[in-house]
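Section 5: illustrative case.
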């Protein structure tokens, strides 16, 4: 990556259900940098759309990432559900490679009232299988568990950083809104953001900042963490100081905006970042 790219989480709202061609045109018209393809209910994309997205990536030098289906739990108490979750992640990685994606992300697991160490071992086992299969298939896409927004979900920054140290093609997808919500409103100042970046650099090396995948949105939260995403200016998310830290660390990679007004807040973030 040669710079920080600003991506919409899914097709822009103004696409109005008219498909990838219109969505891609809108992204270009707004001078945005790419798209995170959202495979919410399953990894499905027809060949025509695959071609469109791949051309968007390769011919127009836009960045593509993929979000795996929501029905993933690598710590399910039912073995068949773990297997299905592994397959959904593999399907996302395979489709990502087909369409020219840079990396994939997903919500990895729930604690299911088990100990942190137990869950880590279970998630590690599945990730070992996923990485082994992708390596055998010569699929080098980045596999990125996402930091999660509720205390019931596996996926603190520390847990995902530790997992990333175990596998060469695994790195975090850092969702700053989720971290803010999970911790009931902290991790939202310049100093707190700086400490997070310092920690990632210390644990994963400075190369993490040349190869970054992050999510951002406004967020509503309560005692149990994340409730729902909000428009940035209607939330307490301190995106301006966060972007100052991105600039200070010269972060290169992708920042995906998941606000409800997808393209408007993506543009807001890019414009503010370029003004710094």
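Designed sequence:
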């Amino acid at each position: 990556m040669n710079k920080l790219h600003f991506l919409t989480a899914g097709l822009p709202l103004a696409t109005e259900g008219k498909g990838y061609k219109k969505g891609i045109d809108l992204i270009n018209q707004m001078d945005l940098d790419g798209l995170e393809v959202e495979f919410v209910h399953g990894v499905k994309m027809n060949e025509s759309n695959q071609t469109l997205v791949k051309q968007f990536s390769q011919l127009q030098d836009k960045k593509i990432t993929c979000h795996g289906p929501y029905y993933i739990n690598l710590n399910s108490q039912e073995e068949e559900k773990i297997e299905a979750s592994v397959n959904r992640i593999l399907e996302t990685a395979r489709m990502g490679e087909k369409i020219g994606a840079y990396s994939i992300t997903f919500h990895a697991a729930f604690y299911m009232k088990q100990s942190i160490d137990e869950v880590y071992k279970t998630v590690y086992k599945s990730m070992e299988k996923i990485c082994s299969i992708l390596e055998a298939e010569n699929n080098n896409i980045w596999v990125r568990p996402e930091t999660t927004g509720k205390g019931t979900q596996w996926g603190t920054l520390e847990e995902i950083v530790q997992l990333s140290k175990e596998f060469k093609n695994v790195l975090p997808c850092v969702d700053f809104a989720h971290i803010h919500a999970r911790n009931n409103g902290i991790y939202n100042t310049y100093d707190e953001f700086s400490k997070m970046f310092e920690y990632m650099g210390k644990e994963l090396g400075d190369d993490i900042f040349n190869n970054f995948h992050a999510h951002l949105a406004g967020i509503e939260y309560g005692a149990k963490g994340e409730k729902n995403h909000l428009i940035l200016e209607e939330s307490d998310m301190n995106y301006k100081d966060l972007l100052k830290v991105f600039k200070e660390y010269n972060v290169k990679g992708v920042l995906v905006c998941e606000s409800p007004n997808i393209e408007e807040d993506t543009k807001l973030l890019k414009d503010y970042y370029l003004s710094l």
